[in-house]
């Protein structure tokens, strides 16, 4: 949070939190899907047991332990008022409450969302085009470049608007201690 404050004085963070055992279980399930392919999480070292993998993930240097320690530092640190904890399951179990809490936290007026008519099509969420665009910009089509430029421009406008609102708000920076949403 200290680094984010230096980069974005009025920025805020939202951390999706989940019980550590469920996080480790999810990682273990991914690893077990392809038992014959060594995982980069464990430096491509094959073998081991579920217990040795958990120890590696959960220690302070591990992927989960390091993130957990960083979250604790942010929650108990000086910038805790700029942090919102959101239970990992809440956006799907109670999306209206989750979104309302986020709007409240960022100080934006709530927009109306329709949570009853949601559909999913995998091809709409194909991120490979964007990744390929960034990795090999010369091979991108002009359409991809226009979309990417539009997204960056839109993001910058939202940041400037948020910054101007925060600076003009009475008592700017006076947020409460880290908020949580179950």
Task: Summarize the topology.
Layout: H1 2-7, E1 13-17, H2 20-33, H3 50-58, H4 63-76, E2 83-87, H5 90-93, H6 95-106, H7 128-135, H8 142-168, E3 179-181
Parallel strand pairs: 1-2, 2-3
In short:
Helices cover 52% and strands 7% of the residues.
Based on the model shown, name its key terms.
about 180 residues; 3-stranded parallel β-sheet; 8 helices; about 50% helix; globular; disordered C terminus
- In DSSP terms (H or I, runs of 4 or more residues), the helix count works out at 8
Structural class: mainly alpha
Shape: globular
Order of helices and strands: HEHHHEHHHHE
Explain this structure.
With 182 residues, this protein is mainly alpha-helical. 52% of the residues lie in helices and 7% in strands. The chain has helices spanning 2-7, 20-33, 50-58, 63-76, 90-93, 95-106, 128-135, 142-168; strands at residues 13-17, 83-87, 179-181. Strands 1-2-3 form a 3-stranded parallel sheet, with helices on both faces. Residues 129-156 and 166-180 have low confidence and may be disordered.
């Amino acid at each position: 949070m200290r680094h984010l404050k230096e980069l974005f004085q009025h920025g805020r963070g939202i951390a999706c939190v989940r019980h550590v055992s469920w996080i480790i279980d999810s990682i273990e399930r991914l690893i077990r899907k392809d038992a014959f392919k060594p995982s980069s999480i464990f430096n491509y070292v094959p073998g081991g047991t579920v217990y040795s993998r958990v120890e590696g993930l959960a220690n302070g240097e591990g992927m989960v332990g390091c993130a957990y320690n960083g979250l604790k530092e942010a929650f108990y640190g000086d910038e805790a008022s700029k942090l919102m904890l959101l239970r990992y399951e809440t956006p799907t179990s109670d999306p209206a409450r989750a979104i309302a809490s986020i709007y409240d936290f960022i100080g934006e007026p709530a927009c109306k969302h329709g949570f009853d008519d949601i559909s999913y099509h995998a091809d709409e969420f194909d991120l490979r085009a964007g990744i390929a665009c960034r990795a090999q910009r010369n091979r991108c089509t002009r359409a991809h470049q226009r979309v990417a430029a539009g997204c960056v421009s839109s993001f910058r406008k939202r940041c400037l608007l948020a910054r101007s609102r925060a600076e003009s708000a009475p008592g700017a920076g006076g947020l409460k201690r880290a908020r949580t949403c179950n």
